[in-house]
Write a structure and sequence with these properties.
Pfam families: Glutaredoxin (PF00462)
CATH architecture: 3-Layer(aba) Sandwich
CATH topology: Glutaredoxin
Structural class: alpha+beta
Order of helices and strands: HEHEHEEHH
Shape: globular
Largest sheet: 4 strands, mixed
CATH class: Alpha Beta
Domain Glutaredoxin: 18-81
Number of helices: 5
InterPro entries: Glutaredoxin (IPR002109), GRX_PICOT-like (IPR033658), Monothiol_GRX (IPR014434), Monothiol_GRX-rel (IPR004480), Thioredoxin-like_sf (IPR036249)
Family: Belongs to the glutaredoxin family. CGFS subfamily. Belongs to the glutaredoxin family. Monothiol subfamily.
Strand order of the largest sheet: 2-1-3-4
Radius of gyration: 13 Å
Distance between the termini: 31 Å
Strand content: 15-25%
Binding site for glutathione: 23, 60, 72, 85-86
């Protein structure tokens, strides 16, 4: 991976409590999975940043290598890779996501 790209990704993840690398933006998700993650986070009422991987092909391919996760969206919480849409749905439905976010955002 290009060191400059890695540094940029590291910085985005380090400076934001929750980051979603997704297709589209929070206002205009470009796929159903990205939309689902946005709706979950909006329902939770938490502050989060989104990064549109469609705007930069280098970022799109770089994120797959960075996270070792082949699909989007990719959610990072407190600097750690949390998962994609399926993991977000499961964690939300079980109540685990609420606990994780409370700890993450209060630390």
């Amino acid at each position: 991976m290009d060191p400059e790209l890695k540094k940029s990704i590291d910085n985005l993840i380090a400076t934001n409590g929750i980051v979603v690398f997704m297709k589209g933006s929070r206002q205009f998700p470009q796929c159903g999975f990205s939309n689902t993650v946005v709706q979950i986070l909006n329902t939770m009422g938490v502050k989060y940043e989104t990064v549109d991987i469609l705007a930069d092909p280098r970022l799109r391919s770089g994120m797959k290598e960075y996270s070792q996760w082949p699909t989007f969206p990719q959610v990072y919480i407190n600097g750690e890779f949390f998962g994609g849409c399926d993991i977000m749905i499961q964690a939300y439905q079980s109540g685990e996501l609420k606990e994780i976010l409370e700890v993450a955002l209060n630390s």
